Design the sequence.
């Protein structure tokens, strides 16, 4: 540590030693053992290394847009591991950062949600974002039509 | 007889300077509390999980209610006013800590997307509440005598603990990346994707990242080195300044690129890792003339130590 004009008391009091030790020990041990329990943290933000992600748009049969949340296709991820160190479990969205859902996965995921809606089918646009030759942008857009199963 | 290492450490950590740095940190933490206070909090619905905060032991119906938000806001306001005015010590700092940690805990308990923007502030607030708890008599006495800014009130252990904490906070971030992704974390593409996902489109930093994997990879390597090595740099002056500059650069880059609220992490990291405390200690030295009063107050001997 740096020097400078200071005034000294002979030594640290027992209470100060204890507080210092507990403060530091807790901040070392709690994140290691239990992870994120606010205000303790293991600082997990952006710990993954994704190479691709998708953005989903949903259209009703008349062409109007439907919120992606209605079919659990919204992105929850914001750099923090979804559901880690928070009190509410995130909705089971298929828009998992770092993954590209196949048509079969999309159909299997959307059809149960569609059963609760009035539309006979929806059209899903899937933008696949990836980096090629050092440049990152939308690489392809896939369109899938998912029909509601007969009750 | 030469003192043993415990004695030397004890004396070194107990050395006191004027409270300029500690008070500056407290003001910044209280401003952080005020920004938390004015935010509105959305209550997400879904299955409860945990523990995620130190308040997770409360019954679910309390965690999901709006009353705790009101209560913790009230504690934060009352504590902040008292602490700023040096009234009600040492209880008002703990009211502030309770309000601060309680309010953000209630937010975390009712959301599915966390943000690590107040963790460091919360822990430093705890540390400064501890400081006031051990020294409130001396602080009150100095305030009454109008010589607060020239009195020896700030023990070195408060600064050292804050510095070590911030070192740990960043080192854990680096280790989490290593543990979860290995060296592949710094592949450049991940940062490019994050810039595409959330980056300000108007920002030149975003455009640079989107169009240059080399730049993204370089910045990720610098981040990985700065974060992981942060706690190791704490004991050494020049490495600490170097890592401080790297971390401040990292936060500036993040804030220029993303809408993430890391402003207080940036300011606190700069204050602790750059030689601000050292400068303030020299700029506002202890006034020898008021030492006798401190001695009477403390009931112990206080003396100036030679500069190391």
Sequence:
């Amino acid at each position: 540590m740096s020097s400078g004009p200071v005034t000294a008391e002979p030594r640290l009091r027992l209470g100060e030693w204890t507080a210092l030790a507990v403060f530091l020990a807790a901040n070392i041990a709690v994140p290691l053992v239990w992870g994120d329990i606010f205000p303790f943290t293991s600082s997990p933000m952006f710990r993954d290394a994704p190479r691709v992600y998708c953005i989903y748009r949903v259209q009703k049969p008349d062409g109007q847009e439907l919120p992606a949340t209605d079919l659990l296709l919204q992105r929850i991820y914001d750099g923090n591991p979804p559901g880690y160190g928070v009190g509410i479990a995130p909705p089971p969205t298929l828009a998992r950062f770092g993954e590209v859902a196949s048509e079969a996965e999309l159909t299997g995921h959307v059809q149960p949600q569609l059963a609760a809606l009035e539309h006979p089918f929806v059209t899903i646009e899937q933008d696949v974002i990836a980096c090629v030759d050092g440049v990152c942008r939308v690489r392809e857009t896939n369109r899938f039509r998912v029909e509601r199963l007969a009750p | 007889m030469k003192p043993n290492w415990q004695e030397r450490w004890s004396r070194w950590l107990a050395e006191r300077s004027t409270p300029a740095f500690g008070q500056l940190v407290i003001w910044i933490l209280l401003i952080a509390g005020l920004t938390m206070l004015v935010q509105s909090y959305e209550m997400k619905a879904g299955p409860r999980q945990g523990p995620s905060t130190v308040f997770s032991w409360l019954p679910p119906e309390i965690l999901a209610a709006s009353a705790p938000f009101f209560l913790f806001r009230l504690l934060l306001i009352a504590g902040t006013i008292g602490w700023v005015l040096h009234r009600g010590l040492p209880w008002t700092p703990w009211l502030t800590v309770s309000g601060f940690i309680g309010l953000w805990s209630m937010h975390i308990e009712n959301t599915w997307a966390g943000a690590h923007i107040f963790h460091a502030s919360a822990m430093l607030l705890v540390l400064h509440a501890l400081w006031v708890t051990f020294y409130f008599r001396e602080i009150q006495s100095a305030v009454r005598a109008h010589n607060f800014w020239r009195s020896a009130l700030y023990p070195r252990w408060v600064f050292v603990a804050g510095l070590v904490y911030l070192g740990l906070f960043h080192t854990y971030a680096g280790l989490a990346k290593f543990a979860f992704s290995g060296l592949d974390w710094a592949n450049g593409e991940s940062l490019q994707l994050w810039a595409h996902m959330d980056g300000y489109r108007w920002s030149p930093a975003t455009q640079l990242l989107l169009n240059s994997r080399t730049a993204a990879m370089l910045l990720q390597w610098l981040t990985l080195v700065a974060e992981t090595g942060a706690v190791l740099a704490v004991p050494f002056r020049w490495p600490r300044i170097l890592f401080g500059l790297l971390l401040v650069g990292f936060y500036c880059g993040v804030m220029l690129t993303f809408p993430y609220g890391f402003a207080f992490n940036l300011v606190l990291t700069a204050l602790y890792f750059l030689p601000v405390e050292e400068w303030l200690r020299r700029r506002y030295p202890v006034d020898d003339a008021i030492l006798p009063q401190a001695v009477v107050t403390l009931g112990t001997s206080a003396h100036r130590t030679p500069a190391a």
Q: What stands out?
A: The longest helix of chain A spans residues 14-34. Helices of chain A lie at 14-34, 103-114.
